[in-house]
Design goal:
Blueprint lengths: L4 E6 L3 H16 L3 E4 L7 E6 L1 H10 L7 E5 L14 H9 L4 E14 L2 E7 L2 E6 L5 E7 L2 E8 L1 E5 L7 H4 L12 E6 L14 E3 L5 E5 L7 E5 L2 E5 L2 E17 L5 H9 L1
C-alpha cells in the first residue's frame, strides 16, 4: 500500500474535520490509504481548509514535488478548488488520471545578515517590515540598478499567484500566473518633500533580481513574513529576491480558468 498513500493536511475546525473523515472513507473505498501530515513517499498532498491551509501544507512539506490539491472549507479559497460536495468525483478523476499538473514557481530570497546567509522560499509573497513596526527605509535595486528608496511601513514581494492576495489589497496589480514575474508593492509609502518614492507597484521580469539594502542602521532589524510565516533577523546587510527554479506541482481537474476564478472570488 506504500505507493497508494495520500497525505492529508487539515484545519482543526469541526466542519473541516467532518470533511476530512468523509475524504478518508472515500479514499479507502477506492483502495488508497492516508497519512496525517506529510509522508515523503505519498502520491498526492490534499489540504482541507482555505488558502492558509494550502500554503501551510506546502510549507510543512518543504515545498515537495508531490502534487498538491485543496478542498475548500474556508472563505475565499483561491488555491483549494475542490468543493466538499465534489469529493467523490475528484477521487474518481484522480484514480482515472483525469487531471492536469500546473507548475507554480516560488519566490526565492537570499538574506545576508551579520556575516551569515540564509534562503527562504514562498508561494505567495514575502513581506518586509521593521521588527518594531516603525517607518522603514529600503534602497531598491533591480538588475543591479538603483531604482529608489522606499520609505513607509514596508514592502511586498509577490509572485503572480500571490498578486491576488495581500498585494492586491495594498494596491498592487493582478498578474496572470504564466508570466512568472515578481512584483514590488510598497506598503503605505511616504510621499513628501523629505521622502520621494513611487506609490505604485513595479512588475519585474523573471531574469532580473531584486535587491534590497537597508538605508539606515535602525533598519537592519527586519521581520520577513513568507506566506505568513515569520522570520526575524538582526544586522540585515541585504536581501535578494528572484523567481526560483524550485517549483511546486498543483493538481487541477478540468480546465483552470484564471479569469473565471478572479470573477468568482472577487467580483
Amino acid at each position: 500500500m506504500k505507493d497508494r498513500i495520500v497525505n492529508i493536511a487539515a484545519n482543526l475546525d469541526k466542519y473541516t474535520l467532518d470533511i476530512k473523515k468523509e475524504l478518508i472513507e472515500i479514499l479507502q473505498k477506492n483502495g488508497y490509504s492516508y497519512f496525517d501530515g506529510f509522508y515523503p513517499e505519498g502520491i498526492l498532498n490534499i489540504t482541507i481548509g482555505g488558502d492558509g491551509a494550502f500554503l501551510h501544507g506546502v510549507r510543512d512539506s518543504n515545498f515537495s514535488e508531490i502534487p498538491f490539491a485543496g478542498i475548500n472549507t474556508g472563505t475565499l479559497g483561491f488555491y483549494p478548488e475542490i468543493t466538499p460536495e465534489n469529493l467523490e468525483n475528484f477521487i474518481t478523476d484522480f484514480k482515472n488520471n483525469n487531471y492536469t499538473i500546473n507548475k507554480v514557481n516560488l519566490i526565492e530570497s537570499e538574506i545576508n545578515y551579520d556575516g551569515n546567509s540564509e534562503k527562504i522560499f514562498a508561494v505567495n509573497d514575502i513581506i518586509l517590515k521593521r521588527k518594531d513596526m516603525k517607518t522603514i527605509h529600503l534602497n531598491v535595486f533591480i538588475d543591479s540598478n538603483h531604482l529608489e528608496t522606499i520609505s513607509g511601513d514596508g514592502l511586498i514581494i509577490s509572485s503572480p499567484m500571490g498578486s491576488s492576495a495581500y498585494n492586491m489589497s495594498a494596491g498592487g496589480s493582478l498578474v496572470y500566473p504564466s508570466l512568472k514575474t515578481l512584483q514590488i508593492t510598497p506598503l503605505s509609502p511616504i510621499i513628501s518633500n523629505a521622502y520621494r518614492c513611487l506609490d505604485c507597484s513595479i512588475i519585474v521580469p523573471p531574469e532580473f533580481e531584486i535587491t534590497i539594502y537597508p538605508e539606515r542602521k535602525d533598519d537592519y532589524f527586519i521581520t520577513f513574513l513568507a506566506d505568513g510565516e515569520i522570520y526575524e533577523y538582526d544586522g540585515i546587510e541585504s536581501a535578494h529576491f528572484r523567481t526560483s527554479k524550485k517549483e511546486i506541482n498543483r493538481l487541477t481537474t478540468g480546465t483552470y480558468n484564471y479569469w473565471k476564478v478572479i470573477k468568482e472570488k472577487f467580483l
